[in-house]
């Protein structure tokens, strides 16, 4: 071994390490052509909890450019829709499978012909996988060393895997990411495998192999056999079995804990004269859906049994299921799998200490649950039930049981970290030069939540949808960031200043419209992989914004009904509930007319208070648009401190409020540099900058550039804890209030001191994301937020639910019996809510002078301070109740 080979091997070992799984691998092949079947099989049909890995089959190789070559026109879109499944199962891994039977050997032979070609190919593979949010590569070369592939390809295949693995490990180290995974799909029998693989060598470079222990028999054999028998047939000669295949690979030096046993969700059809062991007269007829002779999906077998009254039989000697019967002039024999046969095959996995299984393919199981009478995905569910049982785990795994999927909608009373919300604007892609901002410019670890602004609100259609022509693609590219940060949440935003009120007004006019809107929205959010919805109606109740006074109450109904529908969908599907938030006005001018503050918090996970744009040219003097505190030396209109006090004084819990921060400045025209003190007369909107090209609106990176290149002067306002800058631009004196890491630090301390839930920024593209303008590295403002929250624990938030209390009793309480707590009757002089002094779990609602008894859901207590049910630990005097 050369020194170089030793170092390469050491790098691979240190970065990758041996394969240690916390649960058996349940690999599932998704075929990109199944979208063209009828019924079509789409990414949204996949239950992500059934698989630990999805192999996307197949793409090819461009031998000229040494890149992966797409095989479907919509491959990139399909990738993003598959990546979106991670929002429901962040641990899910997605591998792109290249090759397959149709691709054959010639393209692989070309790439593998020299180390230089392989190296270039590996670099391009890394780019493709990372840019699409995929986790690894599956190499399905059918087959190296077999004609027309030259015999030398056996060793070149090993070199291909070695270089890919080395490049994957190096890229992971360089970028501080988990290295991309590498698997190989391999033949199961010596006829191919002896000529194709150096078994003991390739195990060093792959995480595991998918052994294709299916298609073991076919019409090349003179008699009928099950295509993937688990054990040898008794009574007649069998060609090959799954158990023999596993023994073969292990005897060749391949570790059992790197082997995935191949299972098939389809059967093989034969025309015959007699049953088992009789002469094979050729492949069975064409499948009605898959249009492939001899090939029949599991769900079609079920349908054929029902339609033709065929009889299915179990052969306990061979551990196989088969069915035979007459169809037209043909007598057919079909060997196929059932949950029972899968159970027997899985005994090979557990008995031989294999890593798990790979299943071909998702679309051939009864994914609709309508054919076999066993619910959706009966075969894959059989695998899950057998391999994620607490009593089973691979021998190399930790002793802890694998984590099961979340099925409860109930949220934890404590947050893991402060919210760091980031707005992504879909128009930032159109800027030029260093100001152009794309999803790939986002550091996925810098935000806990990304708000995608904006979608198009379709009032009459009662739906939301794309605004920009490429929004669906961009949605997928943003959601793909979850592959690097599985905890990241991505919300779709509807509304904004330009949206106004007309579409919102139409939707909220009737409860039935809101409910249909919620149903349509849920479908879109789940399909695209979003985690929640951010409603930014600017503003309900504001006549000058096209709204009417009644919209204040209808906005509450809007939030309530959406929350109810989110809860229902969660309970029905077993998925965590979609989140619901609102972006709201910070000042009484709009907020008094727009919101029922003390009520809407029940339906929201948190509230984005837009504490910026607090000053503008509607004022007579220059003022900072997002000052933390008021000034005493000159008159100020509004500030962050007063905004938060306003919201909490009106009954909204501080622990659900997220403070809005701006990555930009608001500019005014002033007379001269000598007239630049805060509070001087403003002469109009300021100049446009070189990047955003918007008058009076400058990004932080633009301001840094102007300080450096135009000699602008920055000064600090100690009372308001924010800076401003002034200088000349295009012959005009400008005054701009903006933020720096110093002012962000002050604001983050304010968040913590006030018990708020966190902070959000408008917007990602206006920080110095390239790190070239301000001399403080990439994202200096957002990194200040991370530093400010580091080591701090956020406050406990009140619970959020579609119903945090049970149904109102239909009978009002008429009278009270002295000394009997059960008949307690409060005084109802005004409408509102009140506590039951005898029972923490009960409260009452007054309506038209009448009291109605209500009950919090199990585990919660009534909290009069927020007029809502809350965690008992947060309600004085009720800490020990509700257990």
What brief labels describe this structure?
883 residues; alpha/beta; TIM Barrel; Antimicrobial Protein, Tachycitin, Chain A; 3 domains; eight-stranded parallel barrel; disordered N terminus; chitinase activity; signal
Structural summary, described in words:
- The structure is a single chain.
- With 883 residues, the protein is α/β, with parallel strands linked by helices.
- It folds into 3 domains: 3-387, Glycosidases (TIM Barrel, Alpha-Beta Barrel); 419-662 and 740-789, Glycosidases (TIM Barrel); 804-883, Antimicrobial Protein, Tachycitin, Chain A.
- It is built from 21 helices and 34 strands.
- It has an 8-stranded parallel barrel with strand order 1-2-4-5-6-7-8-15, surrounded by 5 helices. An 8-stranded parallel beta barrel has the order 16-17-19-20-21-22-23-29, surrounded by 5 helices.
- α4 (115-131) crosses α5 and α10 (339-351) runs parallel beside α11.
- The longest helix is centred in the first third of the chain and has 23 residues, at 153-175.
- Residues 1-22, 220-227, 231-238, 274-293, 395-415 and 802-819 have low confidence and may be disordered.
- Residues 825-880 form the Chitin-binding type-2 domain.
- Residues 1-22 form the signal peptide.
- Keywords: Chitin-binding, Disulfide bond, Glycosidase, Hydrolase, Signal.
Please specify the SSE layout and strand pairing:
Blueprint: H1 3-16, E1 25-31, E2 53-62, E3 67-69, H2 75-83, E4 93-99, H3 106-111, H4 115-131, E5 136-140, H5 153-175, E6 181-186, H6 190-196, H7 199-202, E7 208-211, H8 242-251, E8 259-264, E9 266-272, E10 280-283, E11 295-297, H9 298-308, E12 311-315, E13 320-327, E14 330-336, H10 339-351, E15 356-360, H11 378-387, E16 419-425, E17 449-458, E18 463-465, H12 471-479, E19 489-495, H13 502-508, H14 511-528, E20 532-536, H15 551-573, E21 579-584, H16 588-594, H17 597-600, E22 606-609, H18 640-649, E23 657-662, E24 664-669, E25 697-699, H19 700-709, E26 713-717, E27 722-729, E28 732-737, H20 741-753, E29 758-762, H21 780-789, E30 832-835, E31 842-847, E32 850-855, E33 861-863, E34 868-870
Parallel strand pairs: 1-2, 1-15, 2-4, 4-5, 5-6, 6-7, 7-8, 8-15, 16-17, 16-29, 17-19, 19-20, 20-21, 21-22, 22-23, 23-29
Antiparallel strand pairs: 2-3, 9-10, 9-11, 9-14, 12-13, 13-14, 17-18, 24-25, 24-28, 26-27, 27-28, 30-31, 31-32, 33-34
